Amino acid sequence: MFEKGKRYLRKELHDKYGGNRQSGISKSRKYKIIMLFTSERGKEFGYEDGWKEGFFLYCGEGQSGDMEFVRGNKAIRDHQIEGYSLHLFKSVPEEKGFVEYIGQFVCVGYEIKEGYDREGKKRKAIIFKLMPYEEYIEFVDQGIQNNHEFSETSEDFKEMDFKKIRELAYGKANIDPEKRSTKREYIKRSKIIREYALKRAEGHCEYCGSEAPFYTKNLRPYLEVHHIYRLSDGGPDDPRWVIALCPNCHRRAHFSKDAEKVKEEMAKIVLEKELDLDNS
Ligand SMILES: [Zn+2]
Predict the structure, then answer these.
(1) What is the mean predicted confidence (pLDDT) over 51-76?
(2) ipTM over 0.90
(3) Which GO molecular function entries does the Swiss-Prot or TrEMBL record give (predicted)?
(4) Which among 61, 156, 273, 274 is placed 20 to 30 Å from 96, CA to CA?
């Protein structure tokens, strides 16, 4: 759709895709895309957009008062569940009216930070954590190879008892909140969540109930972990939104005609399981 590094006249982007011509966060209903524009604007308020630990930190919108999850901020937070893709552009100071395409991103979370509004008053700002789409797919989308690789390298979780890993999956164990925001921690957490789903499944597909089709080289039942929702708001980080599936059901979740229905059923199964576990 857009080419990385290419400069676009912002006006033409809106002529073609619609969306608000002035906002930093511009949603095109017709194309189901959200265009994000970053500039130096945050600096004076005590925060600025930019790369940190492999994420692009993007400040939400709202000029005075606490930022809230409305309009553009809500659009970013919910982009995945609403089926919108995020595209980031930066302004090009030397060429007026032009923006340069940085790439497609996925919102994987956000932080609330103290900052200042336009009037210099203290307020809460939403800082979105955006991950480059390609990397997101690599880490979170359960490519079969990816999953397999993970199963082979998760020795440190293998001996861990279910209760302990459930605690970890829910983030109840001591995880340094500072560390949690780094990419390495994010990946580690994704692994914990996957591992948790595999343990919860006890060797059976959590959707159809059939036994794992085979054992891996290190003698673990082979199942694939699927993310039922890919939400920015807690999504990949939430044990209630992952399900361990047999390869057939996994393909069904992705490619079947009734994928939407399957998704709802999966969500229900997992929620019920988790409720049972809460009460056990
Ligand atoms: Zn199955």
Answers:
(1) 90
(2) yes
(3) endonuclease activity; nucleic acid binding; zinc ion binding
(4) 61
Which of 40-49, 72-81, 142-151, 240-249 shows the lowest per-residue confidence on average (mean pLDDT)? 142-151
Decide which of 173 and 118 is more confident: 118
C-alpha 224 – ligand 1 centre gap (Å)? 10
Domain boundary (81, 102, 131) is at 131
- Distance from the CA of 212 to the center of ligand 1, in angstroms? 8
Quote the ligand 1 centre to 78 CA distance (angstroms): 29
Q: Identify whether 236 is part of a domain.
A: yes
Same domain, 184 and 124: no
Widest pairwise Cα distance in the chain: 63
**CA–centroid distance, residue 280 to ligand 1 (Å):** 25
Q: Using CA atoms, how far apart are residues 39 and 257, in angstroms rounded to an integer?
A: 42
234 and 108 Cβ atoms separated by less than 8 Å: no
The domain of 234 spans 140-279
Instruction: Find the 194 Cα to ligand 1 centroid distance in Å.
Output: 17
Q: How many residues does the chain have?
A: 280
